[in-house]
Specification:
This protein has a single domain, classed as Endonuclease, Chain A (3-Layer(aba) Sandwich), CATH 3.40.960.10. It is of the alpha+beta class. Strand 2 and strand 3 form a beta hairpin. 40% of the residues lie in helices and 27% in strands. It contains four helices and four strands; from the N terminus they run αβββαβαα. The radius of gyration is 13 Å and the shape is globular. Strands 1-2-3-4 form a four-stranded mixed β-sheet, sandwiched between helices.
């Protein structure tokens, strides 16, 4: 299920709108379902909402596993996506 913030970011990523890159949403990678995935860049994007504060250890394990598989993991907060979208998109494009 998509959060409001995930929908906002998806609108910017879908249809190859960002630098011609193809993103998938709620995509299975190993034992995890990631928020957004770009196979071309081996990039995982996660949106950390309020519930993630309580799950820091679990998220660290998840990030470590993904990175050990060769994926680059980017995490953004709800606030960053909602208030600083241009900056978020610039970071993703790098």
């Amino acid at each position: 299920m998509f959060t409001h913030t995930e929908r906002i970011l998806w609108h910017e990523l879908c249809g190859r709108r960002l630098a011609g890159l193809k993103f998938r949403r709620q995509y299975p990678v190993g034992p995890y379902i990631v928020d957004f995935f770009c196979a071309e860049k081996k990039l995982v994007i996660e949106i950390d909402g309020d519930s993630h504060v309580d799950d820091l250890e679990r998220e660290a394990i998840r990030t470590e596993w993904l990175e050990n598989q060769g994926f680059r993991v980017m995490r953004f907060t709800n606030r960053e996506v909602n208030k600083l979208m241009t900056s978020v998109l610039d970071v993703i494009k790098e």
